[in-house]
Design brief:
Length: 360
């Protein structure tokens, strides 16, 4: 990225040499990404991140299909906010938005989906893997059910793109629209992309110039797009090492009251560890963990110093109190068994500080 931060200031839409150089760099990144996804070069549109990519797919499809007779859009209850929070805008456009329930582990309820599908459904959005719990949906099976009714299928694959242990291409998912993000694969924050199957039409949600084949107005962020492409080219991390570290961490916490949110560690993101400590609020735990040098998240939105219950856990059927207890720990390419042991030791120390007032 450095050449584009330190001196490569050409506008990729310009015809002069510096502009053409920037355009070539973007095209190189697009070629890398399309090759990794297993799709056509022209089917990849760069965005400012996963949120914009999902908005482009869902709202763009809705705008393009006004008045076609397809008046309903189905969204999974455990989707990321960038998907579920499109509902008010979709309703303002005249669509009837229906939320598809999930099971206790945030996987889409396929029986409920089947009961909602009909010829008036325009689009269904179901994420490949849940960003909080790490549970993986059977996307190909869901896509087949959606396509039976001629509806479009979108999947948020931000969590699974280049995820260790999950090697997929477009042909594996059979989605019409797929969204991915750069920062989840060690690329720069604020980069994403939308895969749009050839023949699927969207209306732009950001208008201006003719960038990204007239689908996203605005001067391209060349350095970040180049960084996204470089991240795609990184060697795959050692999935066995990540999974071993994650499992060791969970095994050390279990005797101290940790309740794993998933019944099995199979068919999940191997870098995710989502637990609850009954009776201990996530907000309190996160503050104490931070003091102990452990970075974790609750998956819930922070507002005015308080944490709202996780909408994912509520959708799974947890109570309000239980939904405030969820904690997510993430493991990546640099996570070692030693770090997992040390992290577990510090989590246990934090638990003791909360439960018994030690070290205050």
């Amino acid at each position: 990225m450095l050449p584009w931060l330190e001196g490569g200031f050409g506008n990729a839409s310009s015809l002069h040499y510096e502009g053409r150089k920037a355009k070539d760099a973007i095209d190189s990144a697009r070629e890398t990404l399309s090759g990794s996804l297993g799709c056509l070069f022209a089917e990849v549109l760069f965005t400012s991140g996963g949120t914009e990519a999902a908005n482009m797919a869902i709202i763009g499809a809705a705008l393009n299909n006004l008045g076609t007779g397809r008046t309903r859009i189905l969204l999974g209850a455990s989707e990321h906010h960038c998907v579920v929070n499109t509902a008010p805008m979709l309703a303002a456009l005249g669509y009837r938005v229906q939320i598809v329930p999930t099971d206790f582990e945030a996987r889409i309820d396929q029986n409920a989906l089947a009961s909602l599908l009909a010829d008036d459904v325009l689009l269904v959005s179901c994420m490949h893997a849940n960003n909080e719990l790490g549970s993986v949906n059977p996307i190909r099976q869901i896509a087949d059910a959606v396509h039976h009714y001629g509806a479009l299928f979108h999947t948020d694959a931000v969590q699974t793109f280049h995820a260790p242990g999950l090697n997929w291409t477009i042909s594996d998912l059979e989605a019409d629209l797929i969204t991915v993000s750069g920062h989840k694969i060690y690329g720069p924050k604020g980069t994403g992309a939308t895969y749009t199957r050839a023949g699927v039409k969207l209306k732009p949600i950001i208008v201006g110039g003719g960038q990204e084949r007239e689908m996203r107005g605005g001067t391209e962020n060349v350095a970040s797009i180049v960084g996204f492409g470089a991240a795609v080219r990184l060697p795959s991390p050692d999935g066995i090492a990540i999974e071993t570290a994650r499992d060791h961490f969970l095994d050390l916490l279990r005797p101290h009251g940790a309740v794993e949110s998933l019944s099995s560690r199979q068919n999940t993101l191997i870098g995710h560890a989502h637990v609850r400590f009954p009776g201990i609020d996530a907000e309190t735990m996160l503050i104490v963990l931070d003091r102990n040098g452990v970075s974790a998240s609750s998956g819930a939105a922070c507002s005015s110093g308080s944490i709202e219950p996780s909408h994912v856990l509520l959708a799974c059927g947890y109570s309000q109190d239980e939904a405030r207890q969820g904690l997510r720990f993430s493991f990546g390419r640099d996570s070692s068994l030693h770090q997992a042991s040390e992290a577990a030791t510090r989590v246990i120390r934090a638990l003791d500080q909360i439960r018994f007032g030690k070290g205050r």
